[in-house]
Amino acid sequence: MTTRADTLARAATLRATFEAAGAVPVETPILQPAETLLDLYGEDIRARAYVTSDALRGEQMLRPDFTVPVVEMHMAHGAEPARYTYSGEVFRRQEHDPDRANEYIQVGYEVFDRANPAAADAEVFALFAEAVAPLGLRAATGDIGILMAAVRGLQTSEARRAALLRHIWRPRRFRALLDRYAGRVPVPTRRAKLLDGALDCDAPLIGKRSQTEIDARIALLRADAAEPPLSGAEVDLLDALLDVRETTPYALAQLRDIAVDLPAIGPAVDGLAARAETLAARGVNVETLPFEASFGRTSMEYYDGFVFGFFSPQRADLPAVATGGRYDALTRRLGNGAEIPAVGGVLRPGLMLELEA
Q: Which residues bind L-histidine (predicted)?
């Protein structure tokens, strides 16, 4: 049976490996200000985190992950380029799956380097692949940036593009919006009445929104309803993109074909090609490396480019042993006007020991 001492010892070994690769060890408080995470992700984060209150510091969260506080630390005080490693507990609610641990140890490695993002992606992936190599795990890779580029290239209003981008990490909501914007589903009865002015506007106000806020929301809904539907061709191209699931060379070929009719994804696809070259240069067998255009869409919402994970083929009941990806936009959100390309990942040493048992 794996003990906490065993897990901490493996975490120390992994952290030492990352230090040998040039990372500086850092620590972050277990209690994190809730305001930052709520600002980034909205109230959805409450379903995944433990929230408490402090009379002096306000609302706090038990650390749901390390990346946000490490980014805040780097953007406030870090030099360029920089590499960091860390280890410690994270806390996640698992109400949908009570058999999964709600407190566990993570070990991470983060790279802040603007010189060559593709090389940084390959560096992180190769280090993690080497760390889990004895476990015989299945690798998965993707690139959220390609889907984001496709959405930004849609011939529709900025409001609709923004809504789709906001829900990329919520596949069901994204699909529902896409079908609605394409006119493939009827407008809900209550919304149709609201748009037609058939609802009772003299009813007393309930809730925290003012009448001005309600009127503004109704105006936005009516403006959206007046927008022409997305073309079927564009939706079909998005569906074709989301269906790409191949080894990297074949995925690249499919994406280049899609880019002929959806040129907005061209630069992101070129980025995937550059990453494949740097991965190969680091000894990764790109010819057999899986690529899924939809991979990573249910992870933490700060990933906006390359994403990866390592899973046990024999233990489908286990979560990913390692995950990571690129989060350039997060550095812009937390950088007070500054930004830097960044990529990183985390390992779960407890799961590694469980698979070795």
A: 65-67, 92, 106, 110, 297, 302-303
